[in-house]
Amino acid sequence: MSAPPVAEVLLSEEQIQERVRALAADISRDYAGQDLLLVTVLKGGFYFLADLTRALDLPVAIDFMAISSYRGDKGHSGAVRLIKDLDEELTGRHVLLVEDIIDTGLTASYLLRTLAARDPADLAICTLLERTARRIVPTLPIRYRGFEVPDAFLVGYGLDYRQHYRNLPYIGVLSPRSKDGT
Amino acid sequence: MLALKRLAFPPIMHHLSPAAYRPPGGRHGRNPKNAACIRAEAFLYWAPMEELPGARFAHSSEAEFARILDFYGIRWAYEPRSFPLRWDKQGHVVESFSPDFYLPDFDLYLELTTLKQSLVTRKNRKLRRMRELYPHVRVKIFYGRDYRSLLAKYDLHPAPTR
Predict the structure, then answer these.
(1) Which among A134, B10, B59, B70 counts the fewest CB atoms within 10 Å?
(2) Strand-by-strand arrangement of the B108-113 sheet
(3) Nearest chain A CA: its distance from B51 CA (Å)
(4) What is the ipTM for the molecules in this complex?
């Protein structure tokens, strides 16, 4: 396999795993004795969810959502379309939305509205990365945050470039030459 | 091109009646050169809905961004308000700033810009001036790479950058 076009390793595998364990310890403490459901959105969040849940000292349930755009006759997008909805019931449960990255907050805001409508007992966010430079939605219930990251194109640990590089065990800054297709 | 989608009311009406924002002496108002920041807000000119033409987006990137907002179910208004930035000696507005979008749910104005440096520099200068005059108004520049990455996230559009 050729070397990925990463200009710089921003977060090493060790740094990520250490932080994931710390987040898991906090979640295990805060949700002890609760019926906790962790929800993530495919595809970016599943690496983080997998590592996070394995580090938890709690009996938790997990579930996944996938969303896409609806394309109209002229190719224009319409409303969000859920292409995979949750299998689990949310009513009365403690729900933690697990995200790989929150930048504008638009996606998280949309998902929170969707989940809140199902009447959970509690709803909060756990994000591995946060990029506040691009924030549009000012208030989000981010209860757990791994790292604040700079305004750069990141790949690895779930983050992709044209569906590739999600499987890198670290998070890197994509080389500018790659983005230009050169 | 997408047609303009209007909110039920211009966002300015959340706070004051249109008459309160119409500057005395006409659309351009008086010279507020020595006025306090809070007073400068009273010189905003306001385009009532019936005066708005059947506007279309000035740039395709704005139409793209509107589609993103629709995608997320975020309410928006397109260029609903102009903020005077400079006046001549007669009190006429000689420079103003009309952010591209207003998001009433977040009380936030957004100005889209490309990566062309001359445009970015000019918009940043206007933004600084606006923040001096209207410190309570939330406004943010959103760069081309930012909304292209949003488009890419759910395959709305091929995107070269995140």
Answers:
(1) B59
(2) B77-78, B101-103, B108-113, B139-143
(3) 29
(4) 0.70
